[in-house]
Amino acid sequence: MLLAGKKGLIVGVANKRSIAWGIAQAAAREGATLAYTYQGERLKANVEELAKTLDPTAPLYDCDVTNDAQLDAVFQGIQSSWGALDFLVHAVAFAKREELEGEFVGTSRDGYALALDVSSYSLTALARRAVPLMTIPRGLPPVAGGSVVALTYYGAEKVIPRYNVMGVAKAALEASVRYLAYDLGPKHIRVNALSSGPVQTLAARGISGFSDMMKHVESRAPLRRNVTLEDVAHAAVFLLSPLAAGITGETLHVDCGYHIIGM
Ligand code: 0WE
């Protein structure tokens, strides 16, 4: 059990297809105890139902990551129920639909700000609040520290048509991972990004050409297939676990090798 006795917060479960939910299931299987946030009443029932299947006592917090008061309440809640935190999973992103349809050059000021706020700044906002809970000595022998994993995508590094402002937001997220890793390293908190290949999630639904994109990856990736939720979840558990004790500030590609191809 790679995460025996560890307590983690999962941010970004929307439904059973969510990468965050895949990670939650794999982490629970490895012995972790989990808390979750949900984004507004619309998704509360979904997250409640899923969380209950693993642990009927799992703490749930309403949290729009652009709302500082709600972020504060999440960590106050974890402080009072657990008193400490071992890991954090960030799996949230949003851009307005119109920004993912037209050209990047047309990105509006408020669309740009919203995408970066929800998809990039939120990692720093969450990590800052997690630090005090991760630096409390705990366990036997007592240890302090933690692990943070954020989900990213290849569109941060190379142009993926229509990913547009999300590519800029993920680039900022990956840079944030490096700066957070630098700041929090002395506190024994590791911060890494996991760059997943495309997965059919709620976030992918309705994105025109998504199925063609998955066919393209399947035909060109060295492993000649798309990633599964399990592939991504297993790599996330690795990064959260002591097996990755020497890894921080890294972007780990879990993409069946797609990103190594030049032509
Ligand atoms: O990060 C993502 C998607 C994130 C996302 C999805 C939506 C759809 C619904 C952010 N905001 C919204 N806003 C909505 O209104 N991915 C890695 C999946 C994804 O999205 C794409 C992709 C891939 C891959 C969009 C265009 C091209 C490729």
Characterization of this structure:
The chain is of the alpha/beta class and 263 residues long. It is 41% helix and 14% strand. The protein has seven helices and seven strands, in the order E-H-E-H-E-H-E-H-E-H-E-H-H-E. The longest helix is centred in the middle third of the chain and has 26 residues, at 109-134. Ligand 0WE binds next to loops.
List keywords for this structure.
263 residues, alpha/beta, seven-stranded parallel beta sheet, 7 helices, binds ligand 0WE
With strands numbered from the N-terminus, the spatial order across the biggest sheet is: 3-2-1-4-5-6-7
Strand fraction equals 5-15%
Structural class: alpha/beta
- The pLDDT mean sits at 97
**Distance from first to last alpha carbon:** 41 Å
State the CATH topology. Answer: Rossmann fold
Q: Which architecture does the CATH hierarchy give at level 2? A: 3-Layer(aba) Sandwich
Order of helices and strands: EHEHEHEHEHEHHE
Shape: globular
Radius of gyration: 18 Å
Number of domains: 1
* CATH superfamily (homologous) name: NAD(P)-binding Rossmann-like Domain
Q: Tell me the number of strands.
A: 7
Largest sheet: 7 strands, parallel
Residue runs with pLDDT of under 50 for 5 or more positions: none
Helices and strands in order, then pairings?
Blueprint lengths: L6 E5 L7 H11 L3 E6 L2 H14 L5 E3 L5 H14 L5 E4 L18 H26 L11 E7 L12 H20 L4 E8 L13 H11 L8 H12 L10 E4 L9
Parallel strand pairs: 1-2, 1-4, 2-3, 4-5, 5-6, 6-7
Bound molecules: ligand 0WE.
Ligand 0WE binds next to loops.
